Amino acid sequence: MEFKDYYQVLGVARDASQDEIKRAYRKLARKYHPDVSKESDAELRFQELGEAYEVLGDAEKRAAYDQLGSSWRQGQDFRPPPDWDQGFEFHGASAGDGAAFSEFFESLFGRGGFSPFGGAAQRQAHAHARGNDTHAKIYIDLEDAYRGGRRQVALKHSELGPDGRPRVRERTLNITIPKGVSEGQQIRLEGQGEAGSGQGGAGDLYLEIHFQPREGYHVEGRDVYLNLPLAPWEAALGARVRVPIPSGEVDLTIPPNSKSGGKLRLKGRGIPGREPGDLYVVLEIVQPPARTAAEKEAYQSLAKAFNFDPRRGGRA
């Protein structure tokens, strides 16, 4: 996937004000509008301009996009870090819902993304209006889903400063992580969204739960998969091993002649719930390197002891 430098697309500096970004977009949109432009790539350029403005014209998405840093270049191969937008508060649904956005845009903001300060004009028309709901992603440890409990999270939201440029504000909240929370589940915090106008109450904050990436683990629904490295002799002869799992530790019996990729199921040891998930231990045979003379000799002894050819179904 190619990185898109939206500042380059609009031809503005990274420190441009929101008004400067709006003017640049309007000028280029008139130039490349397919109904009037004679440029061969007018339709493509018009779509690129619309997507760039969807991000940079939105103080919230612009602030989040800027967190990726300025070292990326247009067209460079790009994969967003899994937690790149952790803690950023967004409002409502995108003003560009239904538009055709690139894979790059959707990898960051989803299909349609989120909109800036949705409903602000409506609030100005009413003396007392409820504030908008806000949304943010937070990442927790897998153990938090097993135990639940209290934790502190840092949230960031953007607002326009006196110079017309977005600035990021931070706040911290103490929240309760419910035991058994699953990937993608939302926690609603009443009254923690955008402030209302007049006597209107504040909106709600919805925190979308994701698990911190963790080597050797992955989660599917409430089922948890753990890769367990084994020495070849443990897999061939069987073994008893102690394995750390999110809920503590467990002693596992490895059956003789186990194969790499085989699974041991621990029923009900996945993420808790009314119907708890299972924990699957995925066996991974690790071949030790032969560095010393004794290690090389041990491999030579194995080669003599076994009538084994892996390219012929295991037999020579």
- Record field, number of beta strands: 12
Profile the largest sheet.
4 strands, mixed
SS class = alpha+beta
Proportion in β-strands: 25-35%
Number of helices: 9
Enter the CATH topology name of the largest domain.
HSP40/DNAj peptide-binding domain
Instruction: Kindly report the name of the CATH homologous superfamily of the largest domain.
Output: Urease metallochaperone UreE, N-terminal domain
CATH architecture of the largest domain: Sandwich
Order of helices and strands: HHHHEHHEHEEEEEEHEEEEH
Strand order of the largest sheet: 1-2-6-5
Q: What is the CA-atom radius of gyration, in angstroms? A: 27 Å
Low-pLDDT sequence parts: 93-98, 113-125
Task: Please report the distance between the alpha carbons of the first and last residues.
Answer: 46 Å
The CATH first-level class of the largest domain comes to Mainly Beta
| Overall residue-averaged pLDDT value | 87
Helical coverage, percent range: 25-40%
Number of domains: 3
Overall geometry: flat
